[in-house]
Amino acid sequence: MAQKTKINIQNLPPAARIAIALVPVIIIIAVFFFLFYKPKTAQINKLKSEIVAQEKEIAKDQAMVEKLPELKKRYAELEYSLKVLSMQLPEESAVSDLLKQISDYGVESGLTITLWKPGAKAKHPSGIVNVIPVSVKMVGTYHKLGNFFSILSGMERIVNIKRIKLARLSARDKFNNLKISFNVQTFSAIPTKPAK
User: What is the pTM of this model?
Assistant: First the structure.
C-alpha cells in the first residue's frame, strides 16, 4: 500500500506557502474570468454595437421624417404643375386642329409653307404624353419668322421648335427671303383606358 505522506505547511519556505495560498485564488479568478466575465463582456460589446447601429438607423429615420413636410409640399407643387401642363395638352383628337392652327399662323405671318410633313406619333420617355413631330420648310424673311415664333410662344398649348436652319434663298432676291427649315414638336395626352 501506498504510504500517506503528511506535508507540514509550516515547514515550507515562505515563498512556497504564498504560492500554495495563491493557487486556489488564481483558479477561482480564472474560472470566474473564463466562465462569467469574458462571455458577459463579449455580450455587452455586441449589444453596444447593436445600440450604435440602431441609433444611426433612428437618426437616419428622424432625418427622413423631418424632410417629410418638405417632400409633401414638393409633391403637391409637382402635382399642381402636372395638372397645369395637362391642361395645355390637347386630347389626341384635337392634335390635327392644333397642327392646322400652327400652319395657319405661319401663313398669317407672311411665310410660304413649302413642306408640312407630320411624323409618326411616339410615346415620350416620361411615358405620360405622346410626341407628334412635324418637319416644316418655309420661305420668308427673318422678321416674319420671328413674328411666327412669337405667336407660337404665346399659344396655350405646348409647342417646341427644334433644329432651326436658315439659308439665303438667292443672292438676287431683293426681299432677303430665307429658306427656313425646322421641326415642330407638339404633345398630346395619352388617352386613359376606361376601367372595366
Answer: 0.52
